[in-house]
Design brief:
heterodimer, A: 202 residues, 8 helices, B: 201 residues, alpha+beta, 4-stranded mixed beta sheet, 4 strands
Amino acid sequence: MPNYKLVYFNSKGRAEVVRLMFAEAGVEFEDKRVQEEDWPQLKPTMPFGQLPVLYIDDKPPLPQSGAIERYVARELNFDGGSSLAFAYIDMVCNLLEDVGSKVPFMEKDEAKKAAGTKDALENHIYPAFDKIEKKFKEGGEEFLIAKRLTLADLAIFHFSDVARVIDANFITKYPTLDALCKRVAARPSIKKYLENRPKTPL
Amino acid sequence: MPTYKLVYFDGRGRAELPRMLFAEAGVKYEDFRVKENWASEKPKTPFGKLPVLTVDGGEPLAESGAIVRYLAREFDLDGGSSIHAAQADMIHTAVIDLSNDFPYFEEDKAKLAERVKTLEEKKANLVFEKIEERLKASGSQFLVARKLTYADIAVASFVDAFKDFDDSFIKKFPCLDALQQRIASRPNIKKWFDNRPKTMF
């Protein structure tokens, strides 16, 4: 097993899905959390000046959360077992990234932030989740894709977790997805991880 | 070989990279362009957006990133190993990141120039610098695995579009400029460029 070091801020954000995969697979990794005050000095040394970054043994560090997620999913068998299955998993993750990015988390003007968040929810997030919920319910499966736990299920779980910050009852609007998230959270390795991870809002 | 159908609007946009992959790989596909009938096509898509790819008439696949990565893997344009695929992935993702911020549709010339400059200062400079360094250090004509991957095609495509907006910016990155020209002159890509529909975007 290679040596993994994941570098990110002290939050869930764009590193949490990777952390969940390591937890579920029972793979040890160094969970390095950078303090805000240390970031300016570290930033220019990172491949694209951003976090997260994944170090694998002595290989050049891998940036871009999407690329990291897809790499780890493949390595740890969360990729659904075939290229085509992985494509659908990739699609779900991209969609979540897409609609999630519409929320103006960084907006300082409170009024603008509220309006932007409402717009993101009503015009992007809810419609996307309506469709995912419908499809998932119709399919009657335990997991989203390939009849097994994949990156897609973990991505939905993480999204539902963080979405509570902008809509406290978010996932309850989608009963089949809610049940999936509860099942994910109840898996022994994930349950243990969730109990022990640093508590941060996002 | 499976039957492929790629559905998009009548333009390059988020379908052009998949089309370039089909072209480079020499793989036939139906290049379906939605013109007036979007209202009736939209409900057929998984999430109301394009592009969408269907493989052998199966479940439609949405999200251009997922489509690109799937085709790259199928056509051996992803570098081959997991780690090489990851490197191609990170480069492509970084370019898409920039592309998403790009003011393609800004009509006011002064605003456009300003927005391009801001993008350059805040993100594009760093990303292009790093990719330029990488290409120089690779000792090869290619960004990853010493062979053609979708990362080269994605970078070339974006450099090409960027040139239209700020010619001088690219001159700071001679290796990337040269890469763009090499990709554009590859026989299959050139043939596609010569024959593709000429569209506004």
